[in-house]
Amino acid sequence: MGGLPLQEATSALALPGTESKQNQVSAASAPTLDSKPKKRICCACPDTKKLRDECIVQHGEEACKKWIDAHIKCLRAEGFNV
């Protein structure tokens, strides 16, 4: 056949400037350590939030340290900085 090898043929067909755009898209979609949480804070950890809120209503904030700490731990595991 005498054609170019497949690698060279595909790079010869690439339009100028498209490679940098492709690299930008893949870099933007790659997760980073400083990425934002996927949920809003009000929607994260509904189980611990419910237990915390019920305890505070019934017993007051001082008596519910265990549930408050559990909810904070859950939020941090979801990526929130609280």
TrEMBL record:
Residues 19-29 have a biased composition (Polar residues). It comes from the Eukaryota. SUPFAM superfamilies: Cysteine alpha-hairpin motif (SSF47072). Transmembrane segments: none annotated. Its main location: mitochondrion. GO terms for molecular function: copper chaperone activity; copper ion binding. One of its GO terms (cellular component) is mitochondrial intermembrane space. Keywords: Chaperone, Copper, Disulfide bond, Metal-binding, Mitochondrion. InterPro entries: Cys_alpha_HP_mot_SF, Cyt_c_oxidase_Cu-chaperone. The keyword Oxidoreductase does not apply. Residues 9-34 are annotated as: Disordered. It is found in: Mitochondrion intermembrane space. Cu cation binds at residues 42-43. Belongs to the COX17 family. This is Cytochrome c oxidase copper chaperone. It comes from Trapa incisa.
